[in-house]
Amino acid sequence: MPRFIAEDDFWSLFLQAKIGVVICQGIDNSIKNVEVYEKLLQEAGKEAQQFLKLEELSSNPVILVWREAQRTMLTEKTKNAFLCMELVDETRSDEFHRARKELSDLVSRHLGGTVKLEVLDIHNREMAI
To answer: Cβ neighbours of residue 123 under 8 Å, at least 6 residues apart?
Structure first.
């Protein structure tokens, strides 16, 4: 069975980090209702603004990174997905857990399939996929 392992190099830099994992299997990622997805994107954009206080994006403490978007992008043909989010700022633990739960709920509601949630930390560094 395949495993996801966060290596020691990561934990040596981010001792208190947590990695939230959402494993999705058997999803239907085809677009069924464009209006629903447009509304979700608009709401997410508005919510993101609260974290982007500085005009220059890269100067904000919270940054959206898109470098590997093409390689890791979900498509309409995606049936299984391994989604991760990192927490490196302990003061945002509640937001981390809410975001992980919200992502899981959105996948279940809009894409179907089964969803499994995990949290990795320095004491629990790997999981079966």
So the answer is: none
The CA-based diameter of the chain, rounded to the nearest angstrom, is: 46
Domain segments of the chain as ranges: 3-29+74-128, 33-64
**Helix (H) and strand (E) counts in the chain:** 4, 5
Place of tokens 């990795």: 120
pLDDT in tens, 13-33: 999 999 999 999 999 988 788
> What does the block give as tokens for 28?
């239907």
Residue at token pair 């890791």: 72
- Rounded CA gap, 28 and 31, in Å? 9
